[in-house]
Amino acid sequence: MRKAERARYIAGRLQELYPDPPIPLDHRDPFTLLIAVLLSAQCTDARVNKVTPALFARADTPAQMAALAVEEVQALIRTCGLAPQKARAIVQLAHILVAEHGGAVPASFAALERLPGVGHKTASVVMSQAFGHPAFPVDTHIHRLAQRWGLSNGSSVARTERDLKQLFPQESWRDLHLQFIYYGREYCSARGCDGTRCDICRACYPRRKHPLMTRKA
To answer: Can you give the residue ranges of every domain in the chain?
Structure first.
């Protein structure tokens, strides 16, 4: 099966499995999504969803968050990985949103990536899910699956993102990003599949007999 054929098959199969994939992070608006995605770095979505209700009950707007002390935010998110760094970033970015963006999350990659704690992946999620801008954020699941399915060579996350954008139509990126993640968690996890076990791996590479080593994101 050629790469383009694999891409079409994968997109079709993922659409069958996850026709309307929900955003796994609980949020109410672009700001709460931004904070949830920031917290999800080196932390599971499930853990973030346990932490954010108390945080957002205390502050769910940039102005409210900017009024909190870093120590208070850190106490509220303490069970998330890298809590001290994330707390500082959250308070700092809230101040910037109030001072420079009228208390709103900017719908701009450049502006988002200038915020403390916000990298390209976080900005891509917000731009895609909050503002409907074409983006294909690449997390560890997507980076792994792109390699297992021969869609990218895994040399870097940037390379994986570029390759996937070239293979799939722009209008599919928002859902595909989520569909990849859900499939990677449910069927083709780092330990649950080695490139030879799940349905898509077997369909794309029926003759593959040995585990496929993948590069980490």
So the answer is: 3-21+136-204, 30-129
When pLDDT is averaged across residues 48-77 and rounded to a whole number, the result is: 98
Residue 121 known to be catalytic: yes
**What HEC string does the chain produce?**
CCHHHHHHHHHHHHHHHCCCCCCCCCCCCHHHHHHHHHHCCCCCHHHHHHHHHHHHHHCCCHHHHHCCCHHHHHHHCCCCCCHHHHHHHHHHHHHHHHHHCCCCCCCCHHHHHCCCCCCHHHHHHHHHHCCCCCCCCCCHHHHHHHHHCCCCCCCCHHHHHHHHHHHCCHHHHHHHHHHHHHHHHHCCCCCCCCCCCCHHHHHHCCCCCCCCCCCCC
Residue 139 known to be catalytic: yes
Residue of 121, 165, 199, 216 marked catalytic: 121
Per residue in 100-145, pLDDT tens?
Answer: 999 999 999 999 999 999 999 999 999 999 999 999 999 999 999 9
- CATH superfamily of this structure's domain 30-129: Hypothetical protein; domain 2 (1.10.340.30)
CATH 1.10.1670.10 fits 3-21+136-204, yes or no: yes
- Which residue of the set 3, 60, 139, 163 is catalytic? 139
